[in-house]
Amino acid sequence: MSEPHLARKRFGQNFLSDPNIIRKIIEAIRPAEGDRMVEIGPGLGAMTEPLMARLPHLHVVEIDRDLIARLKEAHSPEKLTIHEGDALKFDFGSLVTDGAPLRVVGNLPYNISTPILFHLADYAERVKDMTFMLQKEVVMRMVAEPGTEEYGRLSVMLQYRFNMGRLFDVPPGAFRPAPKVMSSIVRMVPRPLAECAASDYALLGKIVTAAFGQRRKTLRNTLRDFLDESDYAALALDPGLRGEKLGVDAFVRIANHVAGRAHRPA
Ligand code: SAM
Question: Fewest Cβ atoms nearer than 10 Å: which of 102, 175, 183, 224?
């Protein structure tokens, strides 16, 4: 028997320990024989083992060397491929070798939740779906509707790429050690971009960031570097609105208008 693992705060380690919750998460993921799946942060294997029981093969990405050593000891490389290192730097595209889209799952380290979501959004075209446990407060922001307090940059930039739904909440008592906050399971399914694509994704990001930089201010103020009165007229958009009132498609329309104008000959 190896020594008990001491949870490392810097790696956001809160290990799932409630078998009913683990079962519920696995049921929500519904692993199927032909799936190409990667788990981020397998930790002590709470989700890894039931996933492996349903799949011929699983990939995991783990940063903690002690946990990697345990995983190596417990599982053969034929069944489990362990990618050692930081999921924020991991090339998830490297797992899509034969066109089969990737399923991504994980009880994510809460200290890197926003950067990991943005990193994964870059692979949306090669992903089938993603199911994550995150801090409830973050999930509420991800799925928030325009006009609500939670609606912001994270909502717009993720809803641009994914249809998302909060599946259920998980209380602190389901983990060891127990986190201070409530958690939720969220499912993310990539949207077909043809529906409403931004011609310049980086520009969309800048406009959304500016619009939510000062939440209480109107678009006339926050988007002053991007739009003037004639643009508002062309877009049939009220400059007296606040960013929090605009849906994702409205932000895309603004970004495409600005990008198109930049390319017009003077
Ligand atoms: N899946 C396990 C469970 O549910 O019990 C562990 C979840 S724990 C919240 C987060 C896991 O992600 C830990 O195993 C931690 O070491 C790992 N981790 C933290 N930061 C990481 C990173 N940047 N890249 C990859 N794994 C990371």
Answer: 224
Same-domain pairing of 83 and 178: yes
For residues 132 and 228, state if they share a domain: no
Report whether residue 183 contacts ligand 1, using a CB cutoff of 6 Å: no
To test ligand 1's pocket by mutation, which of 8, 63, 110 has the most ligand atoms within 8 angstroms of CB?
Answer: 63
Question: Is the C-beta atom of 174 inside 6 A of ligand 1?
Answer: no
Residue 4 in domain = no
- Provide the token pair at 101: 């889209």
The length of the chain is 266
Q: Which of 154, 170, 193 is the last residue of a domain?
A: 193
Which amino acid type is present at position 147? G
Contact by Cβ (8 Å): 167, 212:
no
| Other C-beta atoms lying within 10 Å of the C-beta of residue 20 | 8
